[in-house]
């Protein structure tokens, strides 16, 4: 694979840009692989990438029923932060955030990581106490956050109305090195790097069954035929329950739609990400100038990946008091993704009851930020056969044993 560089851009400028290679190959499936990953979202691709980079396993196929990055990875609002309360969460999200810092250099592809800072507004006394507690926990975990005053919030984000009659801004949890990245670029960068290592990314190929012998996985049935494997990773977010059923086990997961919308593009007016969790809304400004707006998940289970009018109304109504200027914006488009919610709002990175079959799911409304760290931990588990230190607390057995990692405050609405 040719590296991207300033020199390459200059060279191609003289050649009418005819010399660029395809970013990744589109091969036909082989009959067998050492590892098959189902799902070419960010988590599946990152798992494949770190299998190759950290463990030297490159006879890998990533199988995707649609197009790579076309699930939640290409539909999310791209917030990156690691200000979680519980130690195992802070560890994996902070690992992920720190990998994002150098991801573009790591795989020579610009993922447009923008550490512009994230504020989680405290708009009730309860939130003030909660976020102060999180800031103290983060200090012990080595995650840099601080609780800031309303005036500092106003300094960082002048378009905020801090004197709202119902929900005045009482402070905020500020993570200066949180921010955003370009979601498609994250998927594309991982895909290009995997393809360069000789892995096969097979798109438009749905896994329809999982085959096993003697309690161990032997391969998958797909719309492009049967493919054998020694190990299988299921990394399909909202469709995890469907794949688990094929493998013969059940998951404590609910699949619900999470929606977002963007406004018409306007001049730069906000250079931080703001989350207002009491009213269920959050906002940032994209590099194109659109205000990127999201709210809470739908209140019922479904698999439709669509937006709905009630969501626009609820979310915009919730945010208008804190951001009065959005009352004058036209909304341009909306969409939905199917997120996989666990009861404790923490992910599952785990071996499964089927031998040599592993699962990564349950990232719910907040897994974009976790892609590098999750891929790192899942690759470690698949290569070694058991979860490593980053994944150890996120096993399926925690639901049986009652060892929940309760992040319902950090992850219920907040992405
Ligand atoms: C509107 C919205 C806003 C969000 N905002 C944020 C945010 O700001 N910050 C944040 O951190 N997170 C956010 N998230 C959550 C985040 O997007 C997800 O947690 C993350 O992208 C999950 O990635 P994934 O790779 O696990 O899943 P996906 O990207 O959904 O990938 C799974 C893939 O598996 C494929 N698949 C499914 N079944 C099969 C099959 N049978 N055979 C083959 N392939 C199959 C799917 O087609 C899909 O491409 C948001 C999500 C949504 C929907």
Question: What can you tell me about this protein's structure?
Answer:
This protein is an alpha/beta fold. It has 12 helices and 18 strands. The protein has helices at 6-14, 42-55, 87-101, 103-106, 125-141, 150-156, 183-196, 240-247, 309-320, 371-384, 397-401, 408-411; strands spanning 32-38, 60-63, 79-80, 118-122, 146-148, 171-175, 179-180, 200-202, 207-213, 216-222, 225-234, 254-265, 273-276, 281-285, 290-301, 331-341, 348-351, 357-361. The strands form 3 sheets. Strands 1, 2, 8, 9, 10, 11, 17 and 18 form an 8-stranded mixed β-sheet that branches. A hairpin with a 4-residue loop joins strand 14 and strand 15 (290-301). Helix 3 crosses helix 10. The protein is globular and about 65 Å long. The two termini are 35 Å apart. The structure holds flavin-adenine dinucleotide (FAD). Flavin-adenine dinucleotide binds at residues 38-44, 63-66, 70-73, 75-79, 206-207, 235-237, 239, 243, 258-260, 294, 337, 339, 363, 365-369, 415. Residues 38-44, 63-66, 70-73, 75-79, 206-207, 235-237, 239, 243, 258-260, 294, 337, 339, 363, 365-369, 415 line the site of flavin-adenine dinucleotide (FAD).
């Amino acid at each position: 694979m040719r590296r991207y560089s300033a020199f390459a851009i200059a060279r191609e400028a003289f050649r009418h840009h005819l010399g660029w290679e395809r970013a990744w190959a589109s091969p036909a499936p082989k009959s067998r692989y050492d590892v098959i990953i189902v799902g070419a979202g960010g988590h599946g691709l990152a798992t494949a990438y770190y299998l190759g980079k950290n463990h030297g396993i490159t006879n890998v196929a990533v199988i995707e029923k649609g197009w790579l990055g076309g699930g939640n990875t290409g539909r999310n609002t791209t917030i990156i932060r690691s200000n979680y309360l519980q130690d195992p969460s802070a560890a994996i999200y902070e690992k992920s955030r720190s990998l994002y810092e150098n991801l573009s250099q790591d795989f020579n592809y610009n993922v447009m990581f923008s550490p512009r800072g994230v504020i989680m507004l405290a708009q009730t006394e309860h939130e003030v106490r909660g976020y102060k507690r999180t800031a103290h926990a983060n200090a012990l975990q080595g995650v840099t956050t601080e609780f800031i005053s309303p005036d500092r919030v106003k300094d960082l984000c002048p378009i905020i109305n801090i004197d709202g009659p119902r929900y005045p801004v009482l402070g905020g949890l500020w993570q200066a090195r949180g921010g955003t990245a370009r979601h498609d670029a994250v998927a594309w960068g991982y895909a290009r790097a995997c393809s360069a290592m000789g892995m096969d990314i097979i798109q438009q190929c749905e896994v329809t069954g999982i085959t096993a012998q003697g309690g161990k996985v032997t391969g998958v049935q797909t719309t492009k035929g049967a493919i054998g494997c020694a190990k299988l990773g299921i990394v399909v977010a909202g469709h995890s329950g469907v794949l688990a059923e094929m493998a013969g086990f059940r998951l404590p997961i609910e699949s619900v739609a999470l929606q977002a919308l963007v406004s018409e593009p306007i001049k730069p007016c906000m250079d931080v990400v703001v989350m207002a969790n009491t009213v269920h809304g959050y906002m940032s400004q994209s590099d194109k100038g659109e205000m990127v707006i999201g709210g809470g998940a739908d209140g019922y289970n479904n698999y439709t990946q669509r937006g709905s009018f009630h969501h626009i109304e609820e979310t915009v109504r919730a945010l208008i008091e804190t951001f009065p200027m959005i009352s004058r914006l036209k909304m341009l488009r909306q969409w939905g993704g199917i997120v996989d919610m666990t009861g404790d709002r923490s992910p599952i990175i785990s071996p499964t009851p089927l031998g040599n079959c592993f699962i990564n799911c349950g990232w719910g409304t907040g897994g974009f930020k976790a892609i590098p760290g999750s891929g790192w931990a899942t690759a470690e588990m698949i290569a070694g056969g058991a979860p490593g230190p980053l994944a150890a607390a996120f096993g399926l057995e925690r639901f049986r044993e009652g060892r929940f990692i309760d992040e319902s405050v950090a992850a219920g609405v907040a992405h």
